[in-house]
Amino acid sequence: MTNLELENLGFVPAGPVPEHEVTGGFCCDLLSWAMSRCTEGRVWFTVMGNINTVAVASLADAAAVVLCQEAAWMPDALERAAQQGVALFTTDLPAYEAALVLARKLGQL
Description:
- By secondary structure, this protein is an alpha/beta fold.
- The protein has a single domain (about 5-105), classed as HprK N-terminal domain-like (Udp-n-acetylmuramoylalanyl-d-glutamate--2,6- Diaminopimelate Ligase, Chain: A, domain 1, 3-Layer(aba) Sandwich), CATH 3.40.1390.20.
- It contains 4 helices and 5 strands.
- The protein has helices spanning about 30-35, 50-60, 75-85, 95-105; strands at about 10-15, 25, 40-45, 65, 90.
- α1 (about 30-35) packs parallel to α2 (about 50-60) and α2 packs parallel to α3 (about 75-85).
- It is globular, with a radius of gyration of 12 Å.
- It comes from Allofournierella massiliensis.
- InterPro entries: Ser_kin/Pase_Hpr-like_N_sf.
- This is DRTGG domain-containing protein.
């Protein structure tokens, strides 16, 4: 599946969605942990909506970042994501539940 299909799972795009292949999910709110463990093609579920999250997602080549629990993206993060081709989404679900939605779609459960 691609990250373009994330909207069909109930995740709301927060800006442009450049197409990336989705291989799995990753839940974490610690940037240094995500930097070393979020791998290419993963959808990163977090509540950190700042510019540093976008930077880490770009470095990791994440398929997308889903901001959970109704957290809001900072304006500078939205701008940087558009510049760097990082797909951003939002959801009101907690990270665990949002990751389960993706895992079910990917047949990983």
